[in-house]
Amino acid sequence: MLYISRWKALAIILTALAVCLCAVPNFFPESTVKSWPKWAQRHLVLGLDLQGGSHILLEVDANSVKKDKLDSVRDDARRVLREARIAYTGLATKGDSVEVRISKDTDVPVALAKLRELSQPLGGLLGSNGQRSLEVSDAGGGLIRLTVPQAAIADRVRQSVDQSIQIVERRVNELGTVEPLIQRQGADRILVQVPGLQDPTRLKELLGKTAKLDFRMVDSSVSGDQAMGGNVPPDSELLMSASSPKQPYVIKKQVLVSGADLTDAQPGFDQRTGEPIVSFRFNTNGARKFARATTENVGLPFAIVLDNEVISAPVIREPITGGSGQISGSFTVQGANDLAILLRAGALPAPLTIIEERTVGPGLGQDSIEKGERAAYVGSILVIVFMLLTYRLFGVFANLAVAVNVAMIFGVLSLLNATLTLPGIAGIVLTVGIAVDSNVLIYERIREEIRAGRNAISAIDAGFKRALATILDSNITTFIAAAVLFYIGTGPVRGFAVTLGIGIITTVFTAFTLTRLIVATWVRWKRPHHVPI
Question: Where is the Protein export membrane protein SecD/SecF C-terminal domain (predicted)?
Fold first, then answer.
């Protein structure tokens, strides 16, 4: 057990040295590190509680998700009935259902069969609970009711949150912030933490906009003033302009092209007027739909609608077949840039409401760092003194291994570009105790072997060999607890779990390789007849 080959010893030293070197960038200014090669620029990122920043809790509007789901069911029902050439009247949304009355009684069975094709099992391929996305029933008298069950709405909310997390992450990253934390919290909430961001105003503006972009035709059969009086055609709706003074527009509900077909959006300036604009480009499908829409409606006004506000309503002078265009609407430079960010990131599936907002100042974070460092220093010094007084020379060996252990923890965290929080510092301090505990188990086992009559070298060898199972058991159970905290916990709890989990892995490495290497080297050098322990 004490014999370690030269190549194995070299591998242990090089592994420990390489991992410890990963922590070196943390000791240099950011400006210096940026001049290094890309692979050497990995470092620890201080969390919100250590460097300050913005904390925003968002909530997905479940009512809006429900409305969109019902609108989608209504549109699908209209499409299915038209394709089947079934006459109907009174297609409308009522509560949690969409109702439609079939004109001919003989068409009811066919209509039921066609509409039931819209119902799908919840959960996709894995859905085995028997619940479906839509319940289609015959209410009598030719009336068919399509009801969206609560389980389907809850599933749609879950999907909306998952999609919103990805879109929010893209929007925040466009701001150039460092290591933002964006994660689900509960069933319909999203937590956004941006370390180092002291003014969250612009962030809130970007997150608060749904950025749902549509290209639709203007309904010229009714003027805006007439629509304000309540005279709005059933297939159209009244929308207001985004710019002031507000101007009413009657816009058809049918979407010609949606913002989902955009592949890029960039801010720029109009070459003729010099005003800020946003240039956009469609994908192949969007370019084809946009070309068809502009070809069929030359001479008619069409509207660019963003979040139910009309940005502009130009007249189509000629077909636009290039798959690109521009949006103008009295933008400021920052307004055009922000709109481009929103369009590139994509539209949110539902509006997000800010229900909690906190800003942590850098002074408070610095105070947390100082107190965390003080706690780490005091705890480490007490551990070092205890090991020296209790185990003398072997206490020195243990303290060296623990120092390397802590350096390796910072190295692994830096390699992962992990975010260090105050609970994370607590996890590192706890790891110091766990690392020392492993050495205590080994040393106490050596003492027992000496009391049993073994000689020095035999006792040391038996101590390392027989303490292995105990140390593995204790560290594995602790690692399982850290894994559970990581997967179930959120925010600071995860930070604690990460440092604790990494600390356990490095502890096992140092206790059974580095400490053993140090002791084995000392044994070969001194050939002791008794153990100074």
Answer: 353-522
